[in-house]
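Weekly modeling sync, notes
Attendees: AB, CL, MP (scribe)

Item 1: holo prediction request
CL wants a bound-state model with magnesium ion before deciding which constructs to order. AB pointed out that an apo prediction alone won't tell us much about the pocket. Agreed to run with the ligand included and paste results into these notes for async review.

Input as submitted:
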Amino acid sequence: MKRKLISEAVKKGKGRVLLKGWVYRRRLSKETAFILLRDASSVIQCVIKKSEVDTETWETANDVNIESSVEVVGKLKPDPRAPGGFELETEQLRFIHKGEPFPIAKDFSPEFLLDVRHLWLRSRKMNAILKIRSTVIGAIHEFFRSKGYYEFTPPIFTPTACEGGATLFEVNYFGNKIWLTQSWQLYAEAAIFSLEKIYDVAPTFRSEKSSTSRHLAEFWMAEMEAAFMDYKECSEVAKEEVKFILKRVLERNLEELKLLKRDLKRLEPSLKKKFPTITYTKALKLLKEKCNLNVKWGKDLRTIEEKKLMELFDTPVVVTHYPKEIMAFYKPVDTEDKEAPGPVAKCFDMIAPEGYGEIVGGSERETDIEELKKWLKRGGEKLENYEWYFDLRRYGSVQHSGYGLGVERLIAWICGLENIKDAIPFPRTVDRWRP
Ligand code: 4AD
Ligand code: MG
């Protein structure tokens, strides 16, 4: 007999099947043993009656530790109380590997589960999140490819900073000091002169010294860059992308979202409604008038302020025109925002509902070399490191824009996770780099 996944067996709904997987739970009585079998697809209860099975099957059922690998032959029987609507009347149970006592048994504290992350990946919760993560990353590729974008792969070792020196991870590169990438952007800006519309999904590194529920030291960023595009059009692409990803997850992962106890009503508005766009200056006004929060113009929005602002919305919101002073060197000044009391940039962030914070950061890119030099100098950067970047403004310069989407931030919001660490298989933070 050919092995079936539990989900395939349940779909078939009748007859004898061979299943392979791991023992998720076990309950014993004198005459009957119940084994909850799990595989990648699902779980099913196997009922083993002493009077109806061979001695080896009964002994295996009595002897088995949680997470042992086993193969089971049995008949499917409808059971309305069972998770997939079926249980398995077991005929034969055999070890594939008899596991030692499984370490995850009593202690379910977050820190312990992170210590044994290599084993905790097997949990129903991590299984569900990892499936959603796979959908999200697949959807990003699908979205951009369907719109004619090329996948472009940037270097990870970089001699230049993109998002400022404070969060750079230094690498000893054959005796030279260089860094792990903070963003693909500077390289993407080179590549658009060849491919025009590009995207990627890749690991990104930031030495974030504070431990928060939203920051990882290694995370995945999905970025895009496009020639002949202004920041407004660019922010519309970001809205469309987030909607598209959410749609795919709601189509493919309802079971997983249910297992994670995600309240779908909180996600539905983001599928149906248009995401609003407001300026930073308007956001401060809203914070003052509706949330009783005073933010000094020129200061970046902190977590608490983003959270308060988002209590006014049930979909992600795009905030544009942040003060130029607090923005990265490559974001150009915009003179169109007449309400702003100081210089603002052609830039935008997308903020997620329910306190999940900034999920997208993007902008138009400065094309004036002197402006770039001015802001790089202010940031304490060595201009000679950026000579190659200035070249991009010397030979057929064009208006261009791009953004980066924080993959784990997005997953954390879609799944309703308490901590971003659960959105990535092996989280890296200031105090966590093992296993
Ligand atoms: O806003 P950021 O810093 O933008 C850039 O790096 C641009 N160069 C991207 C571009 O225009 N191509 O980062 C983009 C997104 C943030 O909005 C956030 O969602 C996520 O990356 N992010 C983090 N996610 C997890 N942990 C961290 N430490 C993160 N830092 C940023
Ligand atoms: Mg940002």
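Recorded for review: The two ends are 38 Å apart (CA to CA).
Action items: CL to compare against the apo run; MP to circulate these notes.
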